[in-house]
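<instruction>
Derive structure tokens from the sequence
<data>
Labelled lines for chain and fold:
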Amino acid sequence: MWDSESESVGGRGYGNGVLGSSKHGFKTDGFELRGQSWYVAADIPSDFLVQIGDVHFHLHKYPLLSRSGKINRLIYESRDPDLNKIALDDLPGPEAFELAAKFCYGIAVDLTAGNISGLRCAAEYLEMTEDLEEGNLIFKTEAFLSYVVLSSWRDSILVLKSCEKLSPWAENLQIVRRCSESIAWKACANPKGIKWAYTGNPLKVITAIKVKGMRFELIGASIMHYAAKWLPGLIEDGAGSVDEGSNSSNSSSSSWKGGLHMIVAGTKDDHPSVQAKDQRMIIESLISIIPPQKDSVSCSFLLHLLRIANMLKVAPALVTELEKRVGMQFEQATLADLLIPSYNKSETLFDVDLIQRLLEHFLVQEQTESSSPSRQAFSDQRGINPNAKMRVARLVDSYLTEVSRDRNLSLTKFQVLAEALPESARTCDDGLYRAIDSYLKAHPTLSEHERKRLCRVMDCQKLSIDACMHAAQNERLPLRVVVQVLFSEQVKISNAIANSSLKEAGGTQYQLMIPNRKTLLEGTPQSFQEGWTAAKKDINTLKFELETVKTNDINLLKKKKKKQ
């Protein structure tokens, strides 16, 4: 509504949101709707019919001719002065024409943010210019837009929403651009002042905000909220086509709440219906406007976006760009986020090749940051975890455990993904062992050579005692690997016994570094020396047992060779 006091400038009257013409050439009590037809409540019968779609307006020529250049021209070009019927099917909506017609009759029209854009487009279509009447409809709607709508947060957003149904008129008249820039300026000047909800399309607003220089994390929050509204698949696990990834939506959607919501107010029942053919365009637009800074949007959001992008066959260049963005934040991902189905002709259930590419992008990013001191300093300020590689290693191990159950997953793909990270990324190989064991369960027909090749990705010395105990009894492992595990287990048990003895003897000082065993024995009491001697006996016993196992295994292999 127009909030200023009533004003009159040169015969142009508008005030308090009520729009009227200063020239009343026709006396009427208003308009009446009967079915699909509008009638003017006047003493003079109507002599002119305007048809807009299925709606009919029974009007009078004179009020329309006095203010509409379009209707003047149509009658003139028809060469029929008695023309009493025209069709305006390309006019932007019968509702807007109803208001324009009332203005022509001098009936007061209540201007609001909800009807101003349609009325402005109708005025342009009907050519209601100053040449016909001073203070005509184009002038008055432009004044309302410029001095009322664009000065208000709420009104600018509501007008922007109403423009969705007025394409291309609203774009050609720069209504969308002006509202977007108005919102952008206000958002940049006072981000905390944005306290509304949005059900419209804010992509142009977000683009304008980027140009104005708003903080990237606020822009990212706007993009995520927009996607949650217009692409519900981002919350409902992409396309919802696989059960394995269904938990990802619940685990990540909560992280999108909060922040800046660049959205236009609407009712709860105003849910968008985006066709599949339009989703590709929306996805491509979203990818192109995501700020380049790390953490502008969550890694979970990027992976969900990537899932839909692959499903909709988005342009390869944009998909690659999105993959690089995920690589920048790969340590923030969860297992559920990575379980992306294979939408191409791949035989595997999940897109393992995609995860391989994401991991490569992550490693490239890590290498770039580590080689650039300035960028590393900036990254530290942004809160990057120095143990990012270790987190990614645990994530990859969990992913391998999950996808290894797929019988179509080749040994090569498993091995390449497992060996993609440097050895320093894993301080413990228990997760990798679980993945290997899971793969062996799902692929019981592997040959001895293939099983040995599979186990090469694991370092037995990095297994915990519990993992060693399990592996030592695992019949699916190759015999050579079992022997290595046994040896590693014995070493760990020996170390554990030694450490226990050291701890009991040394008290609070057991963590001190001892240069060698001789110095240790000389500098400790008799009780500790006795404990160490007992530990040595245990070690010798374990070594003897290991040699016995080795001898038995060698004899067994010889017997097998003879039979062959």
In short: The beta strands are 7-9, 12-15, 18-19, 31-34, 37-40, 48-52, 55-59, 85-87, 109-110. DSSP finds 25 helices and nine strands in the chain.
